[in-house]
Amino acid sequence: MKRIVIFASGGGTNAENLIKFFHNSDNASVIQILCNNPHAKVLDRAKNLKVSALSFNRVAFSKTEDVLNILKASKPDLIVLAGFLWKFPEFIINAFPNKVINVHPALLPKYGGKGMYGMHVHEAVVANKESETGITIHYVNENYDEGAIIFQAKCNVTSQDTAKDVANKIHELEMEHFPKVVATLLNQ
Predict the structure, then answer these.
(1) Cis peptide before 76 (omega within 30 of 0)
(2) Are strands 52-55 and 28-35 parallel, antiparallel or unpaired?
(3) 61 with 91: CB under 8 angstroms?
């Protein structure tokens, strides 16, 4: 059985989708949620779905090996960032080479980098009058949103779309594609 650990910072809809997707799987399951926000809704979602969840602070994450040691004990086959907003430390990436992935709400390399997350991305897409946007699932490296691209899915943006409309379209793409891409990676 393949083991998935999810890092999240907020509401946790992608985390919940992944947990439910793998719930009855014979091949993989989400074994843990790790969160940098002790008040995030994702922790409630994990509890309701009976998945172990822990929160941590910046020191435990990037200044000590506390989170690394939790990961080593969990022995994940894949670490999935699902709405996780902190830059991942190199020492954790190096401990799990090609096992840390992220979903980004734009077609990288456009609209990536520090500060480009959530509504910030969708507002920039609308402001720049883009005709399309989408999601990018990519490996995580030492720089924000610069790891090798694994998968992209696109959607149209109309001149009438608001940032909220774009967010809804992106959410649909994430719900549809993210679990399937994770499953494919685990089966390689």
Answers:
(1) no
(2) parallel
(3) no
Non-local (6+) Cβ contacts of 84 within 8 A are 7, 8, 9, 36, 102
C-beta atoms surrounding 128 within 10 Å: 11
pLDDT, tens digit, 9 for 90 and up, residues 22-76:
999 999 999 999 999 999 999 999 999 999 999 999 999 999 999 999 999 999 9
Taking Cα atoms as reference points, which of 107, 133, 138, 103 lies closest to residue 15? 103
Residue 129: name the closest of 106, 155, 161, 153 by CA. Answer: 161
The conformation of residue 22, written as its DSSP 8-state character, comes to H
| The token pair that represents 18 in the structure block | 């992944």
pTM over 0.90: yes
| Distance, CA of 169 to CA of 171 (rounded, Å) | 5
Q: What does the alpha-carbon distance between residue 175 and residue 188 come to, in Å, rounded to a whole number?
A: 21
Look at the alpha carbons of 163, 168, 172, 177 in this order and tell me if their dihedral is positive or negative.
positive
Distance CA 176, CA 104 (A): 14
For residue 117, which of 87, 142, 85, 163 has the smallest C-alpha distance? 85
| Residue 138: its H or E element | strand 132-139
